[in-house]
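Model it.
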Amino acid sequence: MNFWEYLGSRHQQLLTDAYQHASAVFQCMVLATLIGVLVGVVTYRSEWAGNLATTATSTVLTVPSLAMIGLLVPVVGLGVPPTVISLTLYGLLPVVRNAIVGLRGVDPALVDAARGIGMSRPMRLARVELPLAWPPILTGIRVSTQMLMGIAAIAAYASGPGLGNEIFRGLASLGSSNALNQVLAGTLGIIILALLFDAAYVLIGRLTIPRGIRV
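Modeled.
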C-alpha cells in the first residue's frame, strides 16, 4: 500500500488524531498564555523577580520531554493529565520572557501620562501597558505553539491524544508494510497543523496590533 492509499484508508482516524493534537496544543497554549502573562505582570517591575521567573521557566526546558511525561505518569496517571501539565510547563518560557520584555519596553512617558489623567495602576496595565506589550507577547505565543506541536507527539508515550500515536505505532512496527506510512502521516500532519496555527497567529496579529506599532 502506497502513502496515498494509506491516507485514503485511514483518513477518518488521522483527522480524529489531528483534531485531538490541535485541541491539546490550543488548550495548553491558552493556559500557558494566561499563566505566563500573569507571571510577567507580577515580576516585570523587579529585576531579580523577572530574572527568577525567566530562569525558573527556562529550567523546565532542560528536562527532556519524554522524561517529563515519564515523571508525571506515576503522579497523575496516563492520558490527558500528563499531556496538559507537560505542554503547559514547556510553553511558559517564551510567553513569560516576552511578556516581561514587552512590559519593560513600554515608554515610561506614556505610563506617566496615563497616571496624570487619573488612571489607576490596573487601568494603566489593561489600557496602556498590555496593549503596547502585545506584539512581543504574541511572538512568544507563536514560538511556544511551534515548540508544543512537536512536543505533543511525545504524549503518545503516555497514551495521550494526538498524531504522536500514529508515529509511535509506526515506530513500533518497523519492517511492516505500513510502518513508514504511519510515521510519515503523523509527521506531515504535525507540520501542517503548525503552519495553520502560525497563519492564524499572523491573522490575529493583523487584527489586534495597530499598524503604528507593528514590528
